[in-house]
Amino acid sequence: xxxxxxxxxxxAKECDGLNLKILKFSTWHTENNNVNVDIIVEKAxxxxxxxxxxxxxxxxxxxxxxxxxxxxxxxxSVRVPGIDRELFNPQDFERFxxxxxxIELKELINNRKRYKGFIKFVKYDLITLxxxxxxxxxxxxxxxxxxxVPDWDKIMKKVKVKNK
Length: 164
Prior knowledge:
Blueprint: H1 3-17, E1 20-29, E2 35-43, H2 51-67, E3 74-79, H3 90-95, E4 100-109, E5 112-123, E6 126-131, E7 134-139, E8 143-148, H4 152-163
Parallel strand pairs: 2-3
Antiparallel strand pairs: 1-2, 4-5, 4-8, 5-6, 6-7
Helix pairs in contact: 1-2
């Protein structure tokens, strides 16, 4: 098991006790052999995640890295999914039914790799979208990446209401 797999396992266990879950844990090496670690977290009970939650995981990750005696520089990022959040599993599609998403597939379907539409429903691993009055069914296992398309008009209306 690699050192970063061990780190991921450690942080996942710690998150359980903090009502947090790791949505994505990724690492990559830079040209000068530094390592970037990117961690996306959210509350396990789906309540809003805030800066203090990220800070807790950041401190635990830094402590783990210190104890691991890393011989290379590590750049650490701990963050929440964000407004254009990535969807990581079929349950995320269920949770965000009705929202607009953009999807990139692993392979071409109907001569296309990219789809944009509103999530209509999810049944098992089949994601159903509506795009321009067309119904599109995609197998979850063929999705490379999917993310929410923010409704900026709706968001800006909320901001204006709060600022009044």
